[in-house]
Amino acid sequence: MEVMYFIYQQEEPMRIDKFLANEMEDFSRNSIQIYIKDNHVLVNDKVVKANYILKKGDAISVTIPDPIDNDIIAQDIPLDIYYEDSDVIVVNKPTGMVVHPAVGNYQNTLVNALMFHCHDLSGINGVIRAGIVHRIDKDTSGLLVACKNDFAHRNLSEQFFNKTISRKYYAIVYGVINHNVGRIEAPIGRDKFNRQQMTVIEHGKPAVTNFKVLERFKKYTLIELALETGRTHQIRVHMKYIGYPLVGDPVYGPKNVIGETGQFLHAKTLGFTHPRTKEYLEFDSPLPKYFEDFLNELRSNE
Fold first, then answer.
1. In this predicted model, what pLDDT tens digit does every residue of 172-220 receive, in sequence order?
2. CA separation for the pair 182, 234 (Å, rounded)
3. Residue-wise pLDDT tens digits, 119-134
4. What CATH architecture applies to the domain 69-162?
5. How many CA atoms lie within 13 A of 270 on its CB side?
6. Environment class of residue 201 by beta-carbon count within 10 Å: exposed (0-12), middle (13-18) or buried (19+)?
7. Among 26, 140, 133, CA closest to 90
8. Domain 2-64 CATH superfamily
9. Active-site annotation holds for 71
10. What per-residue string of b and e applies to 229-258 under the rule 16 or more CB within 10 Å gives b?
11. Residue 25: which of 166, 162, 146, 204 has the closest Cα?
């Protein structure tokens, strides 16, 4: 099982269930209510109810129970492997694939495929996220590293925390960005009007996205993005915030969605220091065919 810890640092009082809904971005509000009801949430080592009002300094722990072992199965799903050794594996995830199982969806994810291929995966985040150090959205394609043991997992987690991991994305956005480079520094949190979405919000988690323009078209721009933080939907939220939402994004883009593959966003480059050998490794993946086809279509219309 996984245990998550928080310290409530705000001056204003807040209900425990609302606070956890903001902080635990990967969990539904219903799941959080169940954890509280089943006594998996403690404040200052005491069981609380959903309406408990947090005070500054409260120490919160949430125990995430492991799913039933039979729920998570190894599946023989093809993997596009860029690198593999006894510690780590780097794969190029296709668009449409979910990274790890969630309630009601325990099959056909990257974790199911890794469990079949690797057999041994790190267990720090429990069975449901075996080996997973970082995620990319279901409809985002590209490079992702997973860990085969807890030693590698702890080391790479520290690299992510210290922001020494190199991650570069390619995206196509609506509109023509006139300046060549940009930096977006805006906090991100759960949208209070739509719990399924994230948004720039005053008391959100710090988030920083850097980008540079690679190619301009009549109505679109191809950009490269580098992340300093890794918030849920960060690129999609930040680009919408500055007025250039991602093409194909059914959540943060215009209602008339282009394409059938989701947002045109690809995790192209991934670099990290190998946890055991200390060698710096960097990998680069080509854009998916649907991405290149759309770019070629835009170029032909210039």
1. 999 999 999 999 999 998 887 776 789 999 888 899 999 999 999 999 9
2. 15
3. 788 776 666 667 788 8
4. 2-Layer Sandwich (3.30)
5. 24
6. middle
7. 133
8. RNA-binding S4 domain (3.10.290.10)
9. no
10. ebbbbbbbbbbbbbebbbbbbebbbeeeeb
11. 204
Q: Locate 131 and state its tokens.
A: 């080996």
Predicted TM-score (pTM) of the model is 0.77
- What is the Cα–Cα distance from 137 to 2, expressed in whole angstroms? 22
Instruction: Return the structure tokens found at 268.
Output: 């192209």
Specify the CATH superfamily of domain 168-266+292-300: Pseudouridine synthase (3.30.2350.10)
Residue from 58, 137, 139, 249 carrying the catalytic annotation: 137
Percentages (nearest 5) of helix, strand, coil residues in the chain: 20, 35, 45
Residue keyed to tokens 């150090």: 133
Annotate 18-50 with b (16+ C-beta within 10 A) or e (fewer): bbbbbbbeebeeebbeebbeeebbbbeeeebee
* CB-CB contact of 283 with 184 (8 Å): no
3 state DSSP class of 286: coil
